[in-house]
Task: inverse folding
């Protein structure tokens, strides 16, 4: 039930091409529907160039031309979705375009096949709610590009069948991606809400004369981003304070609340909320394993530091 072979991508822009690479290098047959003749002509060259880059980096199993042969580009939607096991829509973030395309997909795609959208912020209920088979529709929002950033957010609408979400989660895991299921629809989902919060503050820091664009990027690149490539924000807080995330919330929660209020955001970390987060962290990492996890984090960061040092040396010598 959870095996699949054929994927249809509706839209041949950057996300459609990037998704095609990820599915094809996992051995799936891919058809890209793209109605623009100009884009259809450009896509094969883009695929070849990226596959060669992946191969040179040791991130491709098999020869680039073998993987490329699994991808077909067509201007005909009906032929693109014929006999597919999964459809992912990758058109621009415009409601009317998505509504019209999903209406066409419903007519041409077998009713048991999941219909996903790579929407970055628009929820499925905003453009699929009128479909007769809306229970098979959901969001599958990837990091960009998905062949290098494996996260994919699965966001069901209130009408989405839970079994369809489970199937899609299994499908994306099969192709080497890391799916999460967002528990309710919110605009921007998780990825762009987190990214947006950082970007909003970055703009404010530049506006207020606190830091330059270059220095904000440097803080993320050489600080936050390094840690976040190994562990997420909750685990960062957990491991940064002896006593774990409960101690971190006691010490720094009031300061973060003041910072939020300064930006007009009043979202205090209530005792109930902190207790929920603490319970989830302690279920993943009991406090008696805290020291070992801190050591693991440091080992991971050491590997990153060594890799960056080697790359800097190579750049200097080239």
Result:
């Amino acid at each position: 039930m959870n095996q699949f072979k054929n994927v249809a991508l509706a839209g041949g822009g950057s996300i459609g091409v990037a998704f095609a690479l990820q599915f094809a290098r996992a051995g799936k047959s891919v058809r890209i529907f793209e109605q623009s003749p100009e884009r259809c002509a450009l896509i094969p060259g883009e695929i070849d160039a990226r596959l060669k880059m992946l191969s040179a980096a040791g991130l491709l199993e098999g020869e680039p031309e073998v993987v490329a042969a699994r991808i077909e580009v067509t201007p005909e939607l009906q032929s693109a979705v014929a006999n597919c096991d999964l459809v992912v829509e990758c058109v621009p973030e415009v409601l009317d375009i998505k509504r019209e395309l999903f209406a066409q997909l419903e007519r041409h795609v077998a009713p048991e096949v999941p219909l996903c959208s790579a929407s970055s912020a628009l929820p499925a209920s905003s453009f699929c709610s009128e479909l007769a088979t809306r229970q098979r529709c959901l969001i599958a929002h990837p990091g960009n590009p998905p062949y290098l950033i494996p996260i994919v957010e699965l966001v069901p609408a209130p009408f989405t069948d839970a079994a369809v979400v489970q199937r899609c989660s299994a499908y994306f895991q099969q192709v080497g991606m890391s799916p999460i299921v967002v528990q309710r629809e919110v605009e921007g989902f998780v990825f762009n809400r987190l990214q947006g919060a950082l970007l909003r503050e970055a703009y404010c820091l530049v506006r207020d004369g606190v830091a330059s664009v270059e220095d904000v990027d440097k803080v993320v690149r050489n600080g936050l981003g390094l840690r976040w490539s190994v562990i997420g924000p909750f685990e960062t807080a957990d491991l940064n304070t002896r006593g774990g995330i409960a101690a971190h919330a006691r010490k720094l929660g009031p300061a973060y609340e003041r910072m939020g209020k300064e930006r007009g955001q009043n979202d205090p970390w209530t005792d109930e909320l902190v207790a929920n987060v603490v319970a989830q962290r302690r279920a993943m990492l009991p406090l008696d394993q805290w020291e070992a996890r801190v050591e693991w984090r440091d080992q991971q960061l050491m590997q990153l530091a060594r890799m960056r040092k080697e790359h800097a040396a190579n750049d200097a010598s080239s």
Remarks:
- The chain has 13 helices and eight strands.
